[in-house]
Amino acid sequence: MMPDAEGRPDEFMFRQFRRHSRVLRTPARYDYFMLSGGANIFPVSNVWKELLALEISSDLAYGWYTSQEGFPSLQRAVSMWENHAASRGGFPREKPLGGHVCMTLGASQGVAAIFDYWAAVCGSKRTTFVGLNYGLFERLARHHGLAIRELLAEDEEGRTLPPADLVACALRSEGPTLVVLVTPNNPSGEQYAPDDISKVLRAAVTTGSLVLLDQVGQMTMAQDCWLNVGELIVQEGAQDNAVVVNSFSKSDGVPGFRLGYVLGPKRIVQHVARYQLISTMNPPTVPLLPPFFSLLSRCIHRAEHEGWMTSAGREPLLSFARHMLDVTTAIAPPTVLEEMHRRMSAEGFEYDHTRYLSHQEEVGRAIRQNHDYVMDRLGKYLSRATELHGGFNFLVELEPFAGQDEDQICHRLFDETAVAVLTESCFRVSRRQRHNFWVRISLAAPAHRFQYAIDRLARFLSRIC
After folding, report:
1. β-pairing verdict for 438-442 and 393-398
2. What digits encode the pLDDT tens for the residues 18-28?
3. Which of 134, 38, 40, 29 is nearest to 419 (CA)?
4. What angle do helix axes 346-377 and 447-464 make, rounded to 10 degrees?
5. Secondary structure of 391-409 in the HEC alphabet?
6. Measured distance CA(11)–CA(135) in Å, rounded
7. What is the pTM of this model?
8. Which whole number is the average pLDDT over 165-187?
9. I need a labelling partner for 91 at 20 to 30 A (CA). Which of 166, 313, 358, 457 fits?
10. How far apart are CA 253 and CA 245, in angstroms?
């Protein structure tokens, strides 16, 4: 079902943002806070800042173009991380997901290229959205003329993700479809258990469907709820029926760098590269060193956390990473390679990895503390809330909003408090009459700013009760 223009998720969302832009012309600009924003606005880690400064000071790559697949060092580092996880530490001996990677302008461009592939190559004009989703997916489906089936939980127990059995049944009844599975879900923060994702992958293999696995919300080192999707793809033999999209926007708080990637079957990654060639020519070359380090750090952290590390310890992977950087960064000044070798030595890596992991863990603690503050401060106004399984977005239903018009209450809240929110109509395609609606709360913000906004929302709720 395709809603009319006024009812489309993106139009509802953009109407809110157009309204918010007015605050820049008033003194209220200093109180403005987007409580539903999708960006991680915690400070960037010092390790990222140092490595970025090294890139800039050494004239590493910002003056260069690269191929439409992206800078080779990052392609290889992505493959290293994804295959290391999928093989449970077996990389580089094992590469069960293959090495086909295309860097993109954020995950959004990767998603756009995958939709283009499905519409242009596969012949199927169907897509299936699992749970509530960001408006980009609906926009792309509309652009390509794809029929949308939106699967939602219809109970009143604080869930939006439908049972995985329902998703698998829908695939088997419809035939080939492009399945959009965001894990953890944005906006709800819910996440399927491994067995549930396996059911969806199994059904995709059976029906010739393609599962777009959006992993952007996975806070791999900041949260303990990390889900090894690559391993599930391998277990179900779904390498030809699944494509992974990810970025560093949320995990490292750098959405402005527009640094994402696609990993999947060769035919799809080649299509993504061609799509990129005719749209933006090629993705950024900066930053290179910080995400390279992040991906290596993830490998080490997960290996130690999950018990994958062999008796040889870190050195085989560090040695591989040093060699990979040497042979894929042909334009690097010797001073850069020397410094990176020092940072990827046993002692140098231990120092940087410890600092980086400490930063990530602090982000995870802050997200939990912000979540606790919402539940405590707004508890008496909450009628429902989704469980925060992962990421930093979740949904609440506020009893004083019951029976209110979404657009009007967003308008009034913003005018009276300078707090902006995004509500259910930004994230769902189908329309149905409900007594109340969901509000997305984004938790990735410094406590003093976040709590000040929640306090203002609480006072607003007390006035309209």
Report:
1. antiparallel
2. 888 887 777 77
3. 29
4. 10
5. CCEEEEEEHHHCCCCHHHH
6. 9
7. 0.95
8. 96
9. 358
10. 17
- CA pair distance 41, 47, nearest whole angstrom: 17
CA distances from 327 to 20, 22, 71 (A): 48, 51, 12
Find tokens 């933006």 and name the residue: 280
Contact yes or no for 298/230 (Cβ under 8 A): no
Over residues 15-69, the pLDDT tens digits come to 888 888 887 777 778 889 999 999 999 999 999 999 999 999 999 988 888 888 9
Average of pLDDT values for 301-316?
Answer: 95
pLDDT band, very low/low/confident/very high, at 7 (cuts 50, 70, 90): low
User: How would you classify residue 164: left for phi > 0, otherwise alpha for psi between -120 and 50, otherwise beta?
Assistant: alpha
Q: Are β-strands 382-385 and 242-247 bridged in parallel, bridged antiparallel, or unpaired?
A: unpaired
List, edge to edge, every strand of the sheet that includes 147-151.
101-105, 259-263, 242-247, 210-214, 178-182, 126-130, 147-151
d(CA 120, CA 86): 29
Q: Are strands 259-263 and 101-105 parallel, antiparallel or unpaired?
A: antiparallel
Q: How far apart are CA 384 and CA 91, in angstroms?
A: 43
Q: How confident is the model at residue 433 (pLDDT cuts 50, 70, 90)?
A: low
How much of the chain exceeds pLDDT 70, in percent?
98
Question: What separation in angstroms does the CA of 433 have from each of 161, 403, 436?
Answer: 19, 10, 9
- Paired with 212 in beta bridges are 180, 243
Structure tokens at 118: 């499905």
Query: Residue type for 48, please?
Result: W
Asked if pLDDT for residue 442 goes beyond 60, the answer is yes
How many angstroms separate the CA atoms of 102 and 244, rounded? 11
Of 83, 52, 77, 72, the closest CA to residue 292 belongs to 77
If phi > 0 it is left, if psi is from -120 to 50 it is alpha, else beta; for residue 72 that is alpha
What tokens appear for 249 in the block? 């926007």
